[in-house]
Amino acid sequence: MDAILLQILNGLDKGGAYALIALGLTLVFGTLGVVNFAHGALFMLGAFCAVSFNQLIGLEKVTVDPTQMTPWGTPLEIRVPMIEDWLGATGTFILDYSVPFSILMAIPVMIIVGLIMERGLIQFFYRRTHAEQILVTFGLAIVLQELIKTWFGANPIPQVPPDTVRGAADVGTLIGFEAGQIVYPYWRLIYFLFSALIIGGVFAFLQLTTFGMVVRAGMADRETVGLFGIDIERRFTIVFGLAAVVAGLAGVMYTPILPPDYHMGMDFLVLSFVVVVVGGMGSLPGAVAAGFLLGVLQSFASMTEVKSVLPGIDQIIIYLVAVIILLVRPRGLMGRKGVMES
Amino acid sequence: MVDLMTPSRRGVLKGGVALGAGLTAGLAAPTVFSSKAWAADYLNAPTGDTVTFGFNVPQTGAYADEGADELRAYQLAVKHLNGEGDGGMLNTMKPLTLKGNGVLGKKVAFVTGDTQTKSDAARASAKRMIEKDGAIMITGGSSSGVAIAVQSLCQEAGVVFMAGLTHSNDTTGKDKRRNGFRHFFNAYMSGAALAPVLKDNYGTDRKAYHLTADYTWGWTQEESIKNSTEALGWETVSAVRTPLGAGDFSQYITPVLNSGADVLILNHYGKDMVNSLTQAVQFGLRDKQVGGKDFAVVVPLYSRLMAQGAGENVKGILGTTNWHWSLQDEGSKAFVKSFGEEYGFPPSQAAHTCYVQALLYADACERAGTFMPCGVVEALEGFEFDGMGNGPTLYRAEDHQCFKQVLVVKGNENPTSQFDLLEVVQEVPVDQVTYDPAIFGGELGECNNGV
């Protein structure tokens, strides 16, 4: 029982990342009709916003100690973060909380990146075939990841969560298990709650605001909305920026779970597309539901008990589900009738 | 009679078949056996005043940083071989035949290839360097899969292969080749070196859980570490294979929590090791107690670049490494000084092994008095040397594996600089890690000069 609960928790935090990326993908597909293979790169760029912020506030004051030498005979450099030198305890606090604080940097950066991406490239491919859209956005993703590799190198760059949430929570005691039986990292629980909050925020924005109402109307019937004199293209551009922010924030908060490297976007992209297909192309609730569902399924499939009966199932479970869904219900779990069925 | 001006369908088909057969025959004959090979007694015999080495390292992909460090080391080696710079380990290597004026009177030039840490790409770049650039020797790499693939290609082509970072027992075991040589240690030696230290730190009554990268290196390391720890009296609770590049290992780590195991052994390298160790620490394994014993995490193969990636999570965690920049023997000090002055930071173990391989090859050519692969192979087989780090070293003739001290290291609890991430716990003597070459099977086969 404890093993099952642990795998559910595992699935939820991973599913949170899948759901956030798939949500952005679905928003872009639903509004602009673009299959954006560069969306994973936005997740990766968000993660590197956290890395950049950490490196910026971690800039060091270097003093040379002539009494100590390096092994190659030069005087030893003593390095102290400048922010600690200037702000003392406050500086230490900001350094400790660099991952959550980097959200403040990631939001404007991702909006700008999203708008440049959409205005500078993707808008020219609205009326092209999906194959062309995939080719150009996939190419863009490769360019972005190579730029990041050139700047930051190929190795993962670890980001640590704040000291107070660095350990693991004894979740089991809350539901009647013995102490130590079900422990789970604080940060992964925070990530799950964060993803739920962002998903809730996006839905509230689309459901409760006039802007959201217009966007939803545009998703249903772009031409009719245009006949009302509403500039739906401009709103869709803003939606692209919003999707970029969602992917970026998902990346920022994921950095303490998975040390970011240039390839992390590509690793998540394919799985997130499967999530979108399973959930239903263009269905926002479908993307979220499928994200969590596939995350949990993937976790269960990697249990030793399951793998001993079905070796290798953990590697194919998501694709297996996608194949079954496409055969039985081509529009996906919650997709609109007619989509992907013609 | 065939009307050439109005080709029939049958005529076109016939012509196509003939053309296809011709092309196939042409393509099937390896150009490596037909280009410059007949001009000399051996492939790519240098004719001008330079000799070309081929440095085949990962310049893109997951191990690009290791590859960059390997390339720095090779460039430094070329500089020293050509009599430039401070000479580095040429000042400490014993015996030494090189004169510091190139190799056999020829200046060393080099070409590079990108393995991308993929066997097919590595073979393609090695082939290009041999066929097009006239490389006399291929060296480098940061993966056992790549090393085995390139070693096999060099054997077929008829050039010497001096392996870079490869730790699988298979490289000088079942997949060994007469034209291939490995300076780096292997998984068996890691197990043999680590086991007594594990016994001292954690006792003989332990239950181990292995997470293993699912490819040749992971399998051989798991087998070697299992054999060594079980010989101590440890029980192996489970050994789970994880896909290469899994990223999130949480679903593999959670079963460890209540498995009854009190040691987690991570048979992972590079990015996988960084991720699995980080996540194991996040799940509280390092602070956990099982049956009154402190839970332990072990990383059998360490590198400084990996330790940088894992950050604070490596603190106190035991493993092994081929070499470390903090060693105080004359050879290591000379190399660290040269490398540090040139690049501003200390070399990694990958850089060390590649630098040493380049010098060993050059010295063997000088001793053999020829670049002919079989002459060089003969000069390297059974060669004993010192002054290149790790103490007295033997290139064993039976399997082309180097035997030298192995370092047991621990993640430094109190690092004094950004490079001071690993602390050498023990320099394990060579006798403790030496084994019978027959245990891993394989045949060296015949040497190949490429003609």
UniProtKB/TrEMBL annotation, chain A:
Q: Which PANTHER family match?
A: ABC TRANSPORTER ATP-BINDING PROTEIN, BRANCHED-CHAIN AMINO ACID TRANSPORT SYSTEM PERMEASE PROTEIN LIVH
Family membership, please give it: Belongs to the binding-protein-dependent transport system permease family. LivHM subfamily.
Xref: InterPro entries = ABC_transp_permease, BCAA_transport_permease
Can you tell me where the transmembrane regions are?
15-35, 42-59, 101-122, 134-152, 189-215, 236-257, 269-297, 309-328
The UniProt entry lists the main location of this chain as membrane
| Localization, UniProt | Cell membrane
This chain's protein is named Branched-subunit amino acid ABC-type transport system permease component
| One annotated GO molecular function | transmembrane transporter activity
Keywords assigned by UniProt, alphabetized: Amino-acid transport, Cell membrane, Membrane, Transmembrane, Transmembrane helix, Transport
A Gene Ontology biological process term:
amino acid transport
What does the entry list under GO cellular component?
plasma membrane
Species, as recorded = Roseospira visakhapatnamensis
Q: How does it sit in the membrane?
A: Multi-pass membrane protein
Q: Which domain of life is it from?
A: Bacteria
UniProtKB/TrEMBL annotation, chain B:
Q: Which organism is this protein's natural source?
A: Roseospira visakhapatnamensis
Q: Tell me, what's a Pfam family for it?
A: Peripla_BP_6
Example GO biological process term?
Answer: amino acid transport
Regarding protein family, the annotation reads: Belongs to the leucine-binding protein family.
- Residue ranges annotated for the Leucine-binding protein domain, each copy included: 50-412
Q: Which UniProt keywords apply?
A: Amino-acid transport, Signal, Transport
Origin: domain of life: Bacteria
InterPro entries according to UniProt: BCAA_transport (IPR051010), Leu-bd (IPR028081), Peripla_BP_I (IPR028082), TAT_signal (IPR006311)
Q: Tell me the classification of the organism that encodes this protein.
A: Bacteria, Pseudomonadati, Pseudomonadota, Alphaproteobacteria, Rhodospirillales
Gene3D superfamilies, alphabetized: 3.40.50.2300
Record-given protein name: ABC-type branched-subunit amino acid transport system substrate-binding protein
